[in-house]
Design goal:
The chain is mainly beta. It has a domain at 435-552. The chain is 8% helix and 40% strand. It has four helices and 50 strands. It has a 32-stranded parallel β-sheet that branches. A 16-stranded parallel β-sheet has the order 2-4-7-10-13-15-18-21-24-27-30-33-36-40-44-47, with no helix packed on it. A two-stranded parallel ribbon has the order 38-42. α2 packs across α3 (50-64). The longest helix is centred in the first third of the chain and has 15 residues, at 50-64. It is elongated.
């Protein structure tokens, strides 16, 4: 077979971003392109500009070259009536496109029952706008890029350069009594795009699973409906190592996923089943192997039962502008397990909205004696009514937690433990059932310029063993236990230039600042604790430093 240029050579990543090859976009008028697309039964572009239409120009190019295969043509004979088993017809069209060196397989509107799995190979585009592909029984992967019985592709050498565009792919697992199998499975590959797809009703498996994939994306897709049979916390979109644990396609060489975009997707309940445990994440890790360069942006996750977003031993990660409602933990960044070298680095979590979780809103966690989370940015997130901490950070290093708003947390607004060199700046915390901001078992935690209001516990507390911390220029009001506290070995810390107000709350201890006898060398000066009176500071620490006057 003579290899041909992949038919989607100008496929774009995101609307509005530059296309890879603008030749065809410049040669065609946007209106004529859209008209041709409509005539071919393919949905029009999302926007009329050239960047938006460029991703679909490749389909026209394939048609002009005679590389389009309509599954209902006489050569293939798909019925699309929801009753006939159309598996062989669709597979024949996929095989023909592959034999041509690449092409478009068009699945026009209709309901196509498939009673065994489909295999898509390199350089093939599936366009299924308006169609429903119905899995006859929920016992197999509906679409995959390998034949597990015969294929073995090391690293990223498997069937690649594949696009799946549109369609409702029904996993049909509402009555399943065992694991249904994934709807889509891709392994040992690169340049995979799944766009504008709706996936329904999966049991103890994944809507889309990638093992050992790079330069791939899931864009503007929906995954609705999950059935838990064995208690598995499955991701709608899973990205994992190609390992014996995942077991999609040999070799099981721990090839990681790299350069992944998950953009504009929506997961939740279907009309038949509950929501997913997780929207996106991974299950497995290997020592010295990292999955990297993930962008999880602009997604919506409703009704997850576990962690909506779980970045497990990922590095160089951006999690931005997502909305998470419900679930256990909204967003989790987690290092790998032992050994200690399995750190996760350079993770940015910004602009997300998380509410009504049963656990932490956003959580960063390393492992005691194992990997830690390093060089983190957590900024401008809105977290409301988490069942745990608003932001929880454990076993981390070099983090900046800035500009977040946290309301009505069932525990502490921002909790930092076993983490060093952390800056907590410019956050607003209100109505915490425990403390506003707490740091313990950590070194050099700087708490600067935050506003904390209405806490059951302390406004800001360093305990236990928060060494060399600085609490500066913060404002605390209506903190029932007290505004500021250092205790249990929190030595050589400083409380400077802070403000505290009772604001009508009866302070249980009657104090703005408490320094216990278990602390050494704590500085406190230049604070404004007006209204607390002469007893507003309780300092029984060893060798405390008060070089300037505090106002009480």
């Amino acid at each position: 077979m003579t290899a041909k240029t992949p038919v989607y050579e100008i496929e774009y990543l995101v609307e509005g971003e530059p296309v890879r090859n603008t030749r065809l976009a410049l040669e065609n008028n946007a209106k004529s392109i859209e008209a041709a697309l409509l005539a071919g039964g393919i949905a029009p572009p999302l926007a009329p500009d050239l960047a938006a239409v460029a991703g679909r120009v490749s389909i026209l190019e394939a048609k002009a070259a005679g590389q389009s295969h309509n599954v209902t043509d006489a050569a293939y004979g798909a019925a699309g009536n929801g009753v006939t088993n159309d598996r062989n017809a669709i597979q024949a069209a996929l095989d023909a496109a592959y034999a041509d060196g690449g092409g478009v397989v068009l699945i026009p509107p209709g309901v196509y029952r498939v009673n065994s799995g489909l295999i898509v190979r390199a350089n093939v585009v599936i366009s299924a706008y308006g169609a429903t592909i119905l899995r006859g029984t929920p016992t197999f992967a509906l679409l995959r890029n390998f034949d597990k019985a015969v294929d073995s592709f090391p690293l990223y050498s498997g069937n690649s350069n594949i696009m799946v565009l549109g369609g409702t792919w029904d996993g049909n697992a509402s009555a399943a009594t065992a694991t249904s199998g994934n709807v889509f499975s891709f392994a040992h590959c690169e340049n995979i795009t799944v766009r504008d797809v709706t996936i329904l009703d999966v049991a103890d498996a994944h809507a889309i699973e990638f093992n050992g994939a790079r330069h791939s994306r899931v864009v503007n897709c929906r995954a609705f409906g999950y059935k838990s049979i064995g208690g598995t916390n499955s991701e709608a979109f899973q990205f994992d190592l190609s390992s014996t644990s995942t077991g999609l396609c040999a070799p099981y060489d721990n090839t990681p996923c790299q350069n992944i975009l998950i953009d504009g997707n929506h997961v939740g309940k279907s009309t038949k089943l509950n929501g997913w445990p997780r929207m996106v994440g991974s299950h497995y890790s290997a020592s010295g192997v990292w999955q990297s360069a993930f962008r999880v942006v602009n997604n919506i996750a409703y009704d997850c039962t576990d962690h909506a977003i779980r970045a497990y031993q990922w590095v160089d990660v951006v999690v931005a502008n997502n909305t998470v409602v419900g679930g256990n933990i909204g967003i989790q960044i987690r290092s790998g397990d032992l050994p200690a070298s399995n750190n996760v680095d350079r993770c940015v979590v910004v602009g997300n909205t998380v509410r009504n979780t049963t656990g932490d809103g956003i959580q960063f966690t390393g492992i005691s004696g194992g990997g830690i989370a390093r060089e983190l940015v957590v900024g401008n997130n809105m977290i409301a009514a988490p069942g745990g901490n608003g932001i929880g950070m454990t076993y981390a290093y070099g983090a900046v937690i800035s500009g977040n708003q946290i309301v009505s947390s069932a525990s502490t607004g921002i909790s930092v433990s076993f983490s060093d060199n952390v800056a907590v700046t410019g956050n607003r915390v209100r109505s915490s059932a425990s403390h506003g901001i707490a740091a313990g078992d950590s070194k050099m935690v700087n708490v600067v310029g935050n506003t904390v209001r209405t806490t059951v516990g302390y406004g800001i507390v360093l305990s236990p063993n928060a060494l060399d911390g600085a609490v500066r220029s913060n404002h605390v009001a209506s903190a029932t236990a007290g505004a500021y506290r250092a205790s249990v070995g929190s030595n050589f810390c400083a409380f400077v230039g802070n403000t505290a107000r009772l604001d009508g709350v009866t302070n249980a201890a009657g104090m703005a600042l408490v320094i216990t006898s278990a602390c050494t060398g704590v500085q406190h000066y230049g604070n404004d604790f007006y209204g607390f009176g002469a007893a507003g500071i309780g300092d029984t620490g060893v060798s405390s430093v008060t070089a300037a006057t505090n106002r009480v």
